[in-house]
UniProtKB/TrEMBL annotation:
Domain named Response regulatory: residues: 6-122
Keyword terms, alphabetized: Phosphoprotein
Matching NCBIfam families: GGDEF, sensory_box
Keyword check for Phosphoprotein: yes
InterPro entries recorded: Biofilm_reg_signaling, CheY-like_superfamily, EAL_dom, EAL_sf, GGDEF_dom, Nucleotide_cyclase, PAC, PAS
Location of the EAL domain: 570-824
Highest taxon above the source species: Bacteria
Modified residues (4-aspartylphosphate): D57
Protein name: EAL domain-containing protein
Amino acid sequence: MDAPLNLLIIEDTLADFLLVERHLRKDGLDAHCRQVANSADLVADLTDMNWDAVLSDYNVPGMEFTESLALVRSVLPDVPVILVSGTVGEENAVGLLKLGVTDFLLKENLTRLVPAIRRAQRDAAELRARHAAEQALREKSQLLLEMSALAHIGGWEYDPATGRCSWTEEVARIHEVSPSADTSIAFFFSFFHGEWRLKIETVLSQAIKYGKPFDLELEIVTAKGNRKWVRMVFAPTSDGGSVVKIRGSTQDITDRKRGEIMMFNQKERAEVTLHSIGDAVITTDAQGIIDYLNPVAQQLTGWSMEGAINKSLMDVLNIVDKNNKLPLPNPILPALSEGTISHLPVDCLLIRQDGRYSEIENSTAPIRSRDGSIIGAVLVFRDVTASREITAKIAYQAMHDALTGLPNRILALDRLQQAIGAALREGTCVGVLFLDLDRFKNINDSLGHSSGDYILEQVAARLLSVTRATDTVSRQGGDEFMIIMPSASHQVHFADLATKILDAVSAPYFVKQQELSLTISIGISMYPNDGSDASTLIKNADAAMYHAKEAGCDNYQFYATEMNSKAAKRLLFEVQLRHAVVRQEFVVYYQPKVDTADRKLIGAEALIRWNHPDLGLLTPANFIAIAEDSGLIVSIGQWVTEEVCRQNQAWLQHGHACVPISVNLSAIQFRNKSLVDSLRILLEETGLPPRLLELELTESVIMQGSETVIGTLQRLKQLGINLSIDDFGTGYSSLSYLKRFPIDTLKIDQSFVWDIAHDESNAAIIKAIISMAHSLKMSVIAEGVETQEQLAFLEAHQCDAIQGYYFSQPVPAMKFEEMLKVQRTLH
């Protein structure tokens, strides 16, 4: 049975209140009614009970109906309010209905009261249900908005007809713009760049044209310049076959996308790493069954991934001991059983599937799960065949001479120490033979280093041919060799070997279709007579070798105690020579050159002198050979050139009529790659005109004929420097060579001039040189002219210039300056 209704009746007349109650009971409505006759009771009663309906008279003294209605509606918004009155017209009633009155009845027609109440109840119930539904919808919408915000999803709509967009706050937040920002499609597209701009324009165009929905992921650049990834899902809405709207959603998937990219990159890096590293990688499960091989492992074992998967490791990795070829134990057993890292033995061979061998080295480690249990093993190994061959080769090269293949000084020293130890135990002798080729530098300078290297190889072969298998033949460097002869019993054995060496080395050599002769000087020291340790024996053999050279070369000398004093003196001389460079103890002398026809001074040759603090003024014959051997010739030659340029420029500034000064250039200086640049800088710094500098080069320097030599000569000529060939006629020059060189002057060697009056051959050579030079547009100067007879011959055969003691010895700078002042004729 339904519960009685609670009715609040606003009525000032009790009779009318009872009339309403009577009609309600009459029509069978079970109701609990309460009368309210004033505003105060109305305020109190509105919240006193859950009212099902409010019945109100229009005219209640002290109460304005519209105010009462507003109060009721504010407190009971969903409760029906039925106006029961006898004084309100229909027009007023309609207005009241608009203010919130549910229904209107006249007091004289209360038969409609109960139906009106029931109808109002139904309407109120429907209203409440609608309000509840609307509230639920609002709550769901709010929840959806909150969930969308949490999921970074926003909605948007595009109208193709107007080109305008609308979007939710979440879309605005994703794009980092104000919700009220420009809503044009152009503004919408502005967040996409490059390929993404083209992509969104294309799919929107297809959606409009074909009504096609899309679901795609793109990168945007927000209004604040931040890069984000979004997922856009949209579908067109059609009307009559035409797309009128495109509705979609935008979701911020930046975090997910970055995570995916990171995971992909990590996986890709792992894949690329395993596929690109030089090491082979095999992984197994806990039972040692293979589950992965990288490409290098497949290549080294000869097994494919498909063929090796699910096989036992030892079926694929066939490893044996290098020395005895016996199988080695499974390398992953320590990893699987003990969880330890282990390595294969050093001498380990892998037998590939095709039967070939490779030397390998490896390490194995366990693979663990998160709980720490062993779930497999990884084996990493590499082919070290080539690297071990290289290591062996490097070790060989470190102990052997690259050119001849002979033991070098390091290995020879070790062999000598071993031989001394054996001789000490056995009571025998050890001989050390120190060898140096005589005048080998001339071959290098005249024929080039390639020819010199060929000679050294030939010498090495000849030394091996006359020594025993137990002897050690080594190259010490340059043209120096050393032979260690162990287990000898007498000095005569060393003498016999030295004699064989002299004979073998002196046999002819054929280089570039030329026959060459070569000799060698040998110094011999013996253990235990000449020293008890390796360094002493080598030092003493070296001293004996220098004694052999002083004795005329092409011989051997046994060490004697006094030899060390000579070697010490030579070493002291070299030290003093080094100090001379630093202390500027050198001076330049100038030997005039004169014109043959009028005897006028036309130039001079700069000749160095060493003002030795103890020995006085020394000529080059006393120290140039040592300077060349020690490498000091470069710094000395540079000093001479600088001094000549400085001095000649000083004479020029003093107003003297200066002449070209020639400087001798050594082979080492000429081969210096910075020669041309350094000379250009020197001329610029001193201000000397290049025509006042002449360079004299020996035939041996330029007769190598290489393009490098020709290029250097041409660059020197481009500077404006004169070029001269010194000591011409003593080398291997030919007309075909000379015409390739930009040479200004040929200088006839004094050895041809000395005997010019009595040696027809020398006279013929001089005439030929003069004729050849003039045909090549070169001038000719003869050096070493000391007699009137020599001068007459040279003048008769049109030699252009003369240099020698007949006119002047080399003079110091001050005296040569006097010659320049008067420009005198020399007689």
